[in-house]
């Protein structure tokens, strides 16, 4: 097809190529079928070749969408020497994807994408490069993933990407709309003059103006439609004037089908072979048919021979040929192509289309092909092959259950949970073998985790475990125990027990499956961590290494994700940040559904590390993405992180509003984890506002939920010191002492610096309230030593604030001033407004006579002294012969006069004078 009337588009093409050496970019030709996109694209390819660029070409067709990596194979066809020079992991990934070798372990699309990106980078280093893809909408799924990865990571210069896309009214494939720079050329209809030149050049005939006007109107300026209409008119020999209908079909497809009638049956068979097996090598066509027929089809402008391959002159020609062929002709063509196929997947596809369903041999080949496609990471292709294998399997064939299991698993992996459940439920209810049923139930449990509740998944897993006995495969039982351990999120001890059983079964198995072992190891490591058995770094890292040998799960569920999160809670802040940023990088490249998970941890990491602006920026980015993707759980987590930052900064109003919304949702859903998060936020707001009763209540409920779950790891209980201080402030010293003993003992046992620091702060406050100031000073020293091992500036400043009050009470004013000044400086740097004000107030009280200037009545001074000694309100009421309410009223007035908010501050404020009351 010529380029008449496309001068403006060609100028834009030239200008785009002028910029490629200086910066990489994308150019897309967008428009309806037959509008001339491919003609402009071919002109771009020719321009690149004229300029001396290396050109890598792919022209996918609709029939190729089921052949994994087929377009990547076409693009890399001439880059064999460069592939061989890649590092071994990248070379092996590409060779396996392109079926040059079998993968050593199941392959992920990510590995192929990384190898392809590195290959293109090396090619670009040698000179300008053009990736040219015609009909982008027909890319197979795995090629689309690889190209999306590559296009988002183009080298800074020397690489151009030119594509054609059929307009659909929506966004462009592969996220091209978001690529910058992107030259989008919307290919519109040709003018009347351009159609005149096009028809003259293509058909060798000049139509009169009336007929030309009618052709323009009927074709709506579409060049392919106009050519076919003109060709049909020439066959009839009729000139058509205004008001007279065109004597040709109105459908472009019908026009093309009519054109096919003008060539011999042998030439039509050539075109049918091209339609059935897009871009076959010339040798395949020669083996099936004959070169004379190929020459005839080429002479009729139905096919073209490019680089040793036969391609349709236009996608619509191939589509029309395939649709108009008889069923017998189609089947015969696919049968012949099956015998000449390059690999099992292509062979299986042709076999499936070569006859009616029910052939066991075809069904088996399709199943093998689906398995191989999954191993190569071509999951979309694998799904279609697996579906065909089920359709070709007789209902009374026991192999049906294995094939349905594979289909269900692949459907779940590609995000079609509803269809996965249908396939797996058929196995659950119909299969006779317990192991087969158990496998279906385990997969259904994973679907339930995503779409229903953990409890629903646990019930399915329990049903599966009941089906299996000691003689059944150990790996199957281990996988079920691992699944159960992950589902028991509100009974972590029970989950740890299932993890231990899974590892015990696998340890007694020779050469266990690396994927099953990796999942068991990471689940066991995480369960043990949560229930207080410490952080076993070696076990996490072993799981990460094993996971690289198998099909990777979603990144949010991977060993790396679990390692990064638990490192955060285990006080390995810097390592956790590195891991989480790597997880984010990979998620953005290969698994966008996992991006919110990676973002969810970064706000807390930066908050604890003292980078509060960065923490808020991450939280807002997380919130924006969660809102756009509609992930409810991530939306809650994003709001939690924002509220946490606000509460640390002393913005109680904003934090409380978010926390109350979270609490409403949590209680409505019966979500204990979200309820605990809401209690944390509300409790800390109370701490910041000096509401000790509210803090003790909210944080008490939070602690109760965690203990009921079995979650005792100190690194996951970052507000224990605030909870214990609140208990001291409200006079519940016995409970504070009991809770503190357990928390401190475990913190030392697992050597968690943050937990030791929190325990020390709470112990200092408790000892001071009881008048044991030497012990309080010693507790502070232990906490400061712990904070030397982990950089938690806010937590350390909170301890220094307590230290200042205690040092004043023991009349060490210089030490008190140093501690309080340090705390105030840190709080001000971080932006912790309420605690900076508290530190400033404590510094003011170091001035001589500050305490003596306070005007307390004798009764208030006596009440204050008794409470400062650690007595409860009830005990003071009995000693003072008054009601508890009267004691509380006196205490309120004392707090107001002294400008304090808690029992701990009362002892520190009165200092030496308290002992005289």
Commentary on this structure:
With 917 residues, this protein is mainly α. The strands form 2 sheets. It has a 5-stranded parallel sheet with strand order 2-3-4-1-5, with helices on both faces. The chain has a two-stranded antiparallel sheet with strand order 6-7. Strand 6 (303-306) and strand 7 (309-312) form a beta hairpin. It is elongated, with a radius of gyration of 36 Å. The termini are far apart. 51% of the residues are buried.
Number of helices: 46
Strand content: under 5%
Question: Any low-confidence stretches, pLDDT <50, length ≥5?
Answer: 848-853, 912-917
Residues in helix, %? 55-70%
Number of strand elements: 7
Overall shape: elongated
Main features:
917 residues; mainly alpha; two-stranded antiparallel sheet; 46 helices; 67% helix; 4% strand
Structural topology:
Elements: H1 7-19, E1 25-31, H2 37-50, E2 54-58, H3 70-75, H4 80-84, H5 88-97, H6 109-126, E3 129-133, H7 141-152, E4 159-166, E5 182-186, H8 192-203, H9 209-219, H10 223-236, H11 252-260, H12 265-276, H13 282-288, H14 291-299, E6 303-306, E7 309-312, H15 315-324, H16 327-339, H17 344-352, H18 360-375, H19 379-391, H20 399-413, H21 417-430, H22 434-451, H23 454-467, H24 474-487, H25 492-507, H26 514-530, H27 537-547, H28 559-569, H29 573-590, H30 595-609, H31 612-629, H32 632-648, H33 652-669, H34 672-689, H35 692-709, H36 720-729, H37 733-749, H38 753-769, H39 773-787, H40 793-809, H41 813-830, H42 833-844, H43 858-868, H44 873-880, H45 884-898, H46 903-910
Parallel strand pairs: 1-4, 1-5, 2-3, 3-4
Antiparallel strand pairs: 6-7
Helix pairs in contact: 1-2, 5-6, 6-7, 8-10, 9-10, 10-11, 11-15, 12-14, 12-15, 12-16, 16-17, 17-18, 18-19, 19-20, 20-21, 20-22, 21-22, 22-23, 22-24, 23-24, 24-25, 24-26, 25-26, 26-27, 26-28, 27-28, 28-29, 29-30, 30-31, 30-32, 31-32, 32-33, 32-34, 33-34, 34-35, 35-36, 36-37, 36-38, 37-38, 38-39, ...
């Amino acid at each position: 097809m010529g380029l008449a009337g496309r001068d403006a588009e060609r100028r834009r093409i030239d200008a785009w190529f002028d910029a490629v050496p200086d910066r990489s970019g994308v150019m897309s030709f967008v428009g309806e079928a037959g509008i001339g996109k491919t003609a402009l694209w071919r002109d771009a390819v020719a321009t690149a070749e004229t300029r001396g660029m290396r050109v890598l070409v792919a022209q996918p067709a609709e029939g190729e969408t089921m052949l994994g990596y087929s377009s990547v194979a076409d693009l890399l066809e001439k880059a064999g020497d460069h592939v061989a020079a890649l590092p071994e992991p990248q070379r092996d990934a590409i060779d396996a994807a392109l079926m040059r070798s079998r993968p050593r372990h199941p392959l992920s699309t990510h590995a192929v994408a990384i190898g392809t990106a590195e290959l293109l980078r090396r090619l670009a280093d040698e000179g300008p490069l053009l990736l040219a893809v015609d009909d982008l909408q027909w890319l197979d799924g795995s090629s689309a993933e690889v190209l999306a990865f590559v296009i988002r990571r183009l080298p800074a210069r020397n690489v151009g990407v030119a594509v054609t896309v059929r307009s659909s009214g929506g966004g462009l494939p592969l996220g091209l709309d978001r690529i910058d720079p992107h030259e989008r050329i919307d290919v519109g209809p040709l003018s009347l003059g351009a159609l005149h030149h096009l028809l003259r050049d293509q058909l060798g005939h000049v139509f009169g103006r009336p007929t030309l006007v009618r052709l323009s109107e009927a074709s709506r300026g579409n060049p392919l439609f106009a050519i076919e209409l003109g060709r049909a008119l020439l066959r009839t020999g009729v000139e058509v004037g205004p008001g007279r209908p065109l004597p040709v079909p109105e459908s472009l497809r019908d026009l093309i089908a009519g054109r096919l009638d003008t060539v011999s049956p042998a030439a039509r068979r050539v075109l049918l072979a091209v339609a059935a097996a897009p871009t076959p090598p010339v040798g395949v066509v020669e083996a099936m048919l004959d070169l004379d027929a190929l020459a005839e089809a080429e002479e009729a402008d139905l096919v073209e021979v490019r680089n040793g391959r036969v391609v349709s002159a236009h996608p619509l020609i191939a589509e029309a040929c395939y649709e108009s062929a008889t069923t017998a002709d189609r089947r015969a063509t696919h049968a012949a192509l099956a015998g000449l196929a390059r690999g099992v997947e292509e062979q299986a596809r042709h076999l499936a289309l070569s006859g009616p369903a029910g052939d066991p041999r075809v069904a088996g080949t399709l199943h093998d092909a689906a398995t191989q496609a999954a191993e190569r990471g071509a999951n979309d292709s694998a799904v279609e092959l697996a579906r065909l294998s089920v359709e070709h399997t007789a209902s009374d064939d026991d192999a049906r259950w294995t094939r349905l299991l594979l289909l269900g698993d692949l459907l779940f992996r590609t995000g079609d949970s509803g269809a996965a459940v249908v396939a797996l439920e058929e196995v659950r209810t119909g299969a006779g073998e317990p192991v087969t049923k158990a496998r279906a139930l385990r997969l259904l449990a994973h679907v339930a985790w995503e779409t229903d509740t953990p409890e629903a998944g646990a019930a399915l897993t329990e049903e599966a475990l009941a089906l299996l006995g000691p003689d059944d495969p150990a790996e199957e039982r281990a996988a079920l125990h691992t699944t159960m351990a992950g589902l028991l999120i509100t009974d972590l001890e029970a989950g740890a027990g299932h993890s231990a059983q899974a590892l015990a079964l696998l340890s007694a198995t020779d050469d266990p499956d690396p994927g099953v072992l990796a999942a068991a190891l990471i689940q066991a490591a995480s369960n043990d961590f949560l229930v207080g058995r410490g952080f076993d770094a070696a076990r996490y890292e072993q799981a990460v290494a094993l996971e690289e040998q198998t099909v990777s799960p979603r990144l949010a569920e991977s060993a790396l994700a679990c390692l990064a999160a638990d490192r955060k809670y285990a006080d390995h802040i810097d390592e956790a940040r590195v891991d989480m940023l790597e997880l984010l990088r990979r998620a953005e490249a290969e698994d966008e559904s996992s991006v919110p998970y990676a973002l969810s941890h970064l706000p807390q990491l930066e908050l604890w590390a003292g980078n509060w602006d960065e923490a808020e920026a991450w939280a807002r980015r997380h919130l924006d993405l969660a809102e756009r993707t509609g992930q409810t759980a991530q939306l809650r987590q994003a709001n939690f992180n924002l509220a946490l930052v606000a509460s640390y900064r002393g913005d109680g109003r904003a934090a409380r509003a978010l926390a109350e919304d979270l609490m409403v949702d949590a209680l409505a859903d019966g979500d204990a984890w979200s309820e605990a998060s809401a209690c944390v936020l509300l409790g800390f707001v109370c701490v910041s506002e000096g509401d000790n009763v509210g803090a003790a209540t909210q944080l008490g409920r939070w602690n109760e939920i965690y203990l009921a779950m079995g979650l005792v790891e100190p690194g996951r209980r970052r507000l224990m010191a605030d909870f214990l201080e609140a208990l001291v402030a409200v006079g519940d010293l016995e409970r504070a002492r009991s809770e503190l003993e357990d928390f401190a003992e475990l913190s030392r046992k697992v050597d968690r610096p943050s937990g030791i620091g929190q325990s020390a702060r709470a112990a200092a406050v408790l000892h001071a309230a009881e008048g044991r100031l030497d012990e309080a000073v010693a507790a502070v020293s232990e906490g400061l030593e712990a904070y030397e091992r982990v950089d938690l500036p806010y937590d350390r400043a909170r301890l220094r604030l307590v230290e200042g009050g205690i040092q004043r009470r023991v009349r060490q004013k210089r030490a008190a001033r140093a501690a309080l000044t340090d705390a105030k400086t840190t709080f001000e740097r971080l932006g912790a407004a309420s605690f900076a004000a508290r530190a400033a107030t404590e510094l003011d009280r170091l001035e001589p006579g500050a305490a003596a200037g306070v005007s307390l009545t004798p009764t208030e001074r006596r009440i204050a002294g008794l409470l400062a000694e650690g007595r409860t309100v009830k005990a003071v009421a009995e000693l003072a012969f008054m009601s508890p309410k009267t004691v509380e009223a006196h205490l309120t007035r004392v707090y107001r006069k002294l400008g304090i908010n808690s029992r701990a501050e009362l002892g520190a404020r009165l200092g030496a004078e308290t002992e005289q009351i």
